[in-house]
Amino acid sequence: MKKRYILINVLCFFSMYATAQDIKQKEVTRIISTLAADDMQGRKTFTPGAEKAATFIEQEFAKAKLQPFPGNKGFRQVFFHYEVKPGMQQLWLNGHTQAAGDRVLVLGAASHLEWNQDSPLESIRVKSGDNFYEQLEKLLRGAKRNTIVWVDSAHSKEFTSYNHGIQETGRHLTDSGKTVVMILKTAADSAIQTWAIKADQQVTPLALFNIVGMIRGTTRPEEYVIFSAHYDHLGIQVPEAGDSIANGADDDASGVTAVISMANHYKKQPAPARTILFIAFTGEEIGEYGSHYYAAHGDPAPEKIIAMFNIDMLGKVSKFGKNSIFITGYERSDFGDILNRNVKKTPFHVYPDPYPDQHLFYRADNAALAKLGVPAHTISTARIDTDTLYHNVRDEVRTLDLANLTNVIKGIITSARSIINGTDTPKRVDKKKV
């Protein structure tokens, strides 16, 4: 009886990987070792290391014979962020000149502006009981028009702290074509009848790029499944034991390795029912720049995206043991249930996020699309509560379990089977609750 039980397990193991035998540890090792090599210099956004990583991913997509997304000349989805350093600022309230330096905050890539109460603007107030940083985030992500924001004096401490950081270091931001100007009111301000502001800024455009490859679906080509990971990391850091390069092997060369491996796998199979997009996002470590841009400007429209497998940190064995992953936001759709059904008779296991207090669902590139209702979840094996190498210069390939990484990639392919072939469609995420 015991021998029969062992035989069944062995058969299940091989059945699980029957469609993914082309995922080889040697190839996984080659890809991750290239991405996490010292000559990538930590792949920090806006550096030559990030450019080198992007070029490597493009080459891998080309070798896999992926197609660029229609309308793109190549695999790069190019967009711009702007390095903005404040210059001259002048403020008048009720005809009186004010000290503008501590009271005016310009959020936008306009090099010069002159506004007053007659300008065609949206006007918003951040009241004393509002969360200042929450309101700021909404304004940075969602301004549809040029906007003047009057900030209650109760937020003086937060406003001043944030503004001083901008004045000293500048900031990077996406140019939405809209500018937001925040003005801090003081307790002494009487009712403001007239106002005017002039401001200059030094604006430097900086190119960024997501890398996007595609396999066109057959029977449901206008329905899309995304496999994604971020290719940026932290770059050069303060030296530890003579090492200053944050190689980012687990975070997230492991995820990009999975995406490239999956691209190679699926291209060798019969064409899928649904179109598959393979995306390497930029700028995750500095604010999820790439995924936010994709969500706001990407094609296809979010309602056409059936599921997103965002992959972040697969290099370590999860707390549940080998051949296992966890999914962030498991309870927000039936995405995880579908994956579990597909691996039910295998030794591979899918679990809910064991670290809810870490808010991982909101801390990765799935979040931007989940906010639009897409069943977008991050898949990981990270030991985020105990991993001393997280965001550390010692996050190198030699610290990873590459055999387990290889098997986990195979397991994810098995878990995605019914979504790729059109049998299952995950329920949408309630975007009002994200």
From TrEMBL:
Name the UniProt key words of this record, in alphabetical order.
Hydrolase, Signal
* Region forming the signal peptide: 1-20
Which GO BP terms, alphabetically?
proteolysis
What Gene3D superfamilies does this protein map onto? Answer: Zn peptidases
Q: Where is the Peptidase M28 domain?
A: 210-412
* A Gene Ontology molecular function term of the record: metalloexopeptidase activity
The keyword Zinc is assigned to this record: no
Query: Please, which domain of life does this record's source organism belong to?
Result: Bacteria
Q: Which organism is it from?
A: Chitinophaga oryziterrae
Name the chain's protein: M20/M25/M40 family metallo-hydrolase
